[in-house]
Amino acid sequence: MIKELSYHAIAVGIAQEAIAYLDDEMNYSSRYLYLLKIELIAGLIP
């Protein structure tokens, strides 16, 4: 139970970081690559 909660906290932190990062000026390709990286990291979290 505690392990699942910590995984959720990590995922929420990653999502918040992604939102803050994407708010900055970015071109389309770097934004796309960053979202792919987020999906990869999130996929590693059960």
- Overall pLDDT metric: 72
Shape: elongated
Number of helices: 2
- Oligomeric state of the chains present here: single chain
What percent of the residues sit in helical stretches (DSSP H or I)?
over 70%
Please indicate the percent range of residues in DSSP E strands (runs of 2 or more). under 5%
Strand segment tally: 0
CA radius of gyration is: 12 Å
Tell me about the biggest sheet?
A: none
- Gap from first CA to last CA: 13 Å
Number of domains: 1
The low-pLDDT segments are none
Walk me through the topology.
Elements (H helix, E strand, L loop, with lengths): L1 H22 L4 H17 L2
Helix pairs in contact: 1-2
Summarize the structure.
With 46 residues, the protein is mainly α.
Summarize the structure in words.
- The structure is a single chain.
- The protein is mostly helical and 46 residues long.
- It has helices at residues 2-23, 28-44.
- It has two helices and no strands.
- It is elongated and about 40 Å long.
